[in-house]
Recover the amino acids of this structure.
C-alpha cells in the first residue's frame, strides 16, 4: 500500500492557525480601513491563508508579506529605486 503525502496547503487549518490568520486580517483591516465585506478584504484574507499554508507562521512576518503582496506600504517605507528607473 502506498501512503500519500499531503502538501501543507492540503492540510486543514486548526483553530490556532485560524486565530493567527484572523489576528493578522483584523490588524490589516484596522490599519488600512478595509471594509470587512469588501473585495479588498476578500483578497487580503486569501493572501493571508495562502501564505500561512506555505509556511509563513510568524504574525509580524505574515503581516509584512501581506502588505507587500497587496501594495499597502506607504511610499516613504518603500525601498529607493535606482536613478533612471
Amino acid at each position: 500500500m502506498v501512503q500519500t503525502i499531503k502538501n501543507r496547503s492540503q492540510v486543514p487549518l486548526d483553530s490556532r492557525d485560524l486565530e493567527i490568520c484572523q489576528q493578522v486580517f483584523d490588524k490589516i483591516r484596522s490599519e488600512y480601513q478595509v471594509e470587512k465585506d469588501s473585495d479588498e478584504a476578500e483578497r487580503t484574507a486569501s493572501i493571508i491563508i495562502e501564505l500561512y499554508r506555505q509556511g509563513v507562521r510568524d504574525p509580524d512576518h505574515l503581516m509584512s508579506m501581506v502588505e507587500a503582496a497587496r501594495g499597502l506600504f506607504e511610499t516613504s517605507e518603500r525601498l529607493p529605486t535606482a536613478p533612471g528607473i
User: Anything to note?
Assistant: Residues 1-6, 75-81 have pLDDT under 50 and may be disordered. Helices lie at 15-32, 39-53, 59-70. The chain is about 55% helix and 0% strand.
